[in-house]
Design brief:
Two copies of one chain form a homodimer. With about 120 residues, chain A is mostly helical. Chain A contains six helices and three strands. Chain A has helices at about 20-25, 30-45, 45-55, 65-70, 75-85, 105-120, and strands at about 60, 90-95, 100-105. A three-stranded antiparallel sheet of chain A has the order 1-3-2. In chain A, helix 3 crosses helix 4 (about 65-70) and helix 4 (about 65-70) crosses helix 5 (about 75-85). The structure holds a DNA duplex (30 and 30 nucleotides).
DNA sequence: GAAATATGTGAGCAGTTGTTCATATGCTAG
DNA sequence: CTAGCATATGAACAACTGCTCACATATTTC
């Protein structure tokens, strides 16, 4: 069975506006934003990358330290960081041959903290 | 090159405590929590599921309405809902043969809103 | 310049995901 | 009881992910 919005009758949609979150994400988000949001959550959906981000909470770290802290190879970390850079989860500064990474903005910390609260409750 | 934490010397880790987020996620999270957090983000990492959650912001909806709003088959929605139930992103109430779904708690709305803010900035 | 170090990247393979199709369950109406 | 509708679920297949290996790039040191 394939319902569509314009189809008649059964199981019809009735709108009820009464929310708090509805303000922050009012109406229907643009496809482009939803796709990008999905990509962002996809990047967050890896224990290794979460360990990297956790390690970066509140400080800068170089790639090889991140490899040690996350417990994976330098190559793997570099791939992960590339991906996280692309979605602006982290940014970095280059100092001679070292690259120092940090969280890109406050949203990242909020996402991690909120997510952790949820899984712990 | 395979660095480990206990290995000597180059590129050593030095801890610097100075943060805000560090409070919310202080120290190193348990493996179990990180794994579950990754699973949670994984479930959020799908445009279809995000559309479902968006549709549920501030109201209850039945499965076939969700199918219509998300633009996929009833079967697909049902699979997605099962997954989202498992991670407590949504919960539902059964009324006769209908199942009415809603967001499970406030964290979900915060995650969506924060994520959207991030991708839009 | 040559060797060493820190990081970045392409290819490739094993494991996972999202959808559809078919079918099952459970409730309701006649 | 039988037909019909709302929802749930198992199987299966194409598409995607995460890791490692091999190698490239860039910077420092000697």
């Amino acid at each position: 069975m394939t319902h569509t919005l314009t189809e008649d009758g059964l199981c019809e949609v009735d709108l009820v506006d009464e929310d708090v979150v509805r303000d922050a994400m009012s109406g229907r988000a643009a496809d482009q934003d939803v796709d990008r949001l999905a990509e962002t959550f996809q990047v967050l959906a890896s224990p290794t990358r979460l360990r990297i981000l956790e390690a970066l909470a509140g400080r800068e770290l170089c790639v090889c330290d991140l490899a040690a802290l996350a417990g994976v190879s330098q190559s793997a970390v570099s791939h992960h960081l590339r991906m996280m850079r692309a979605l602006r989860l982290v940014r970095y500064r280059k100092e001679s041959r070292m690259a120092y990474y940090r969280l890109d903005d406050d949203h990242i910390g909020v996402l991690l903290a909120t997510g952790l609260e949820h899984v712990r409750e």
